Every structure is written in C-alpha cells, then in structure tokens.
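Progress report, Aim 2. The chain analyzed during this reporting quarter is listed below.
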Amino acid sequence: MEWFYDKHGQAVFYKCDDRLISRHGENLCWIFGNYVYSLKNGRHIGWFEAGKIFDIENGIIAFLKGST
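Predicted structure tokens for the chain:
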C-alpha cells in the first residue's frame, strides 16, 4: 500500500494493486499503465507518472512520498 499526499501534505488516498482508494476505503479510480480511469463511467481522467497523479489538464492532484 502506497499513500498519496495532497499539496498540504495530507494523506488523501492510497494505491492498492491497480486502484486508488480513499482514506475511508472507497474505490476512487483505477490505473492502467500510466492512465487513470474513473470507476463510475470508465473515462480517462488523468495520468500516473513519476510518482504523481495528474488531472487531464496536467495539474498535479497528489504525489507519493519522495517523488520530485
């Protein structure tokens, strides 16, 4: 399990296998390769690259500890 942190340094979700899961245990989305997809509708919603999650406008949503 790997935790992702927001810009304030708060743990916001974690990676478990190919899914991102909220602190409360809710499945948020899944990762396939470098792509992040919604669980609700299957749409591409961002990227996972170099320990960071990017939205579709290339803004960083969250990052793994130690990523630069």
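The beta strands are 2-5, 11-16, 19-22, 27-32, 35-38, 44-49, 52-55, 60-64. The chain has one domain: 2-64. These observations will guide the mutagenesis work planned for the next reporting period.
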